[in-house]
Specification:
Length: 361
């Protein structure tokens, strides 16, 4: 009986465009049992990807209204649902596994959970990175974009920050997980930035630290200095986070580095780097200390960019002592504009995976 509700939950998550593949070992069920009680799993299965009030959920599902909002709030604090509060009204919606439930589990992360995540990661990655559109797009270091290269709004870090009214910085669950597994990262851990277009959204957040807009810019500057890649949702409008990622911990970059997946299948990138061999000093700084995807190799007389691996983050440019590297906007015909909104992303992804998730819209 108990396993039944978790298998149902796994099926719902796999029906969502993001996916949640099954495994022979059943480790995905262990993960769900760690996160959800049977009652929470049952309620989650009746949620939708769009915001609803407790009253709307009760009316639609036939569940008693009494105590429902309290349960929904509790699930949002446990990272099982997403909640926003506008005035006195609270709205709730379901979360996919990634980006969603997994990223909000810092509070329950332990050795057992981390081991299960690592066991599940290959199966999840094989499914997740095999379909378009990609979950994330790369935001290059904005200051290094040439005035000749007109960056579109969705390609700029500043667009997300300037559209934000609330900012929250959290620990990176990928880094915490690797630390628990005995492989700690030597870069900052509290680097995951959440952004909301409404003031006060994070006032009652169970985890993280509220910061100002100027502190958000300072955080991003710090992560650039530490050679962390800015990644955000692959959307033109509505991005609500900026992850700052390294090669040793990030599951997304790990798909390129550890699983050998083509960079273009993993992230949407609008730029690429190019090294001028006549200016290159062959110091190796770009390759050894800055690039997070192994996209730079040593040549006979100079270092060179491996175009198929380059994700256009610009980390190799900002510290080049010879100013030998530049960032180039891809030709319009080779750029893939992100879906307009999250809803459009869901529709494209669902169509690509061949899943009917209309019951959860």
């Amino acid at each position: 009986m108990t396993d039944g509700v978790y298998k149902r939950l796994a099926g719902v998550l796999d029906t969502l465009p993001n996916g949640f593949p099954s495994t022979e070992s059943g480790v995905e069920i262990k993960l769900l049992k760690k996160i959800f009680t049977p009652e929470q799993a049952d309620l989650f299965c009746e949620m939708r990807l769009t915001f609803e009030t407790a009253e709307e959920i009760a009316t639609r599902t036939g569940r008693p209204l009494e105590g429902l909002e309290e349960r929904l709030v509790g699930m949002s604090k446990s990272g099982q649902l997403f909640m926003i509060k506008l005035g006195k009204t609270q709205y709730f919606k379901m979360l996919p596994w990634v980006f969603g439930i997994y990223e909000f589990q810092c509070g329950r992360l332990d050795r057992e959970f981390s081991e299960w995540i690592e066991e599940y990661a290959p199966a999840y990655s094989r499914q997740f990175f095999s379909k378009m559109p990609q979950l994330m797009q790369v935001l290059p270091i904005e200051e290094i974009i040439s005035d000749k290269e007109e960056a579109l709004p969705y390609e700029k870090v500043s667009t997300i920050i300037e559209n934000g009214q609330s900012f929250l910085v959290n620990d990176c669950i990928c880094k915490k997980e690797k630390g628990i597994m005995g492989r700690p990262c030597d870069r900052p851990v509290q680097v995951c930035l959440a952004v909301a277009p409404i003031p006060g959204v994070f006032d009652n957040a169970p985890e993280g630290r509220i910061i100002s807009r100027s502190e958000a810019y300072a955080l991003l500057k710090k992560t650039e200095e530490k050679a962390l890649v800015h990644l955000t949702s692959n959307l033109q409008y509505g991005s609500f986070y900026i992850c700052n990622c390294c090669k040793c911990c990030c599951g997304v970059l790990g798909a390129i580095n550890d699983m050998g997946m083509p960079a273009a299948d993993v992230v949407n990138s609008h730029y690429y780097a190019e090294i001028d061999p006549d200016q290159c000093l062959s110091c190796g700084l770009c390759s050894d200390e800055r690039c997070q995807v192994g996209a730079i190799e040593e040549g006979k007389d100079a270092y060179r960019i491996i175009r198929d691996r380059c994700i256009g983050c610009g980390l190799c440019i900002s510290t080049c002592p010879a100013e030998a590297v530049r960032l180039i906007h891809k030709d319009p015909g080779k750029r893939v504009p992100p879906p307009i909104t999250e809803e459009a992303w869901f529709d494209e992804r669902g169509k690509g995976r061949g899943v009917d998730f209309s019951a959860y819209k």
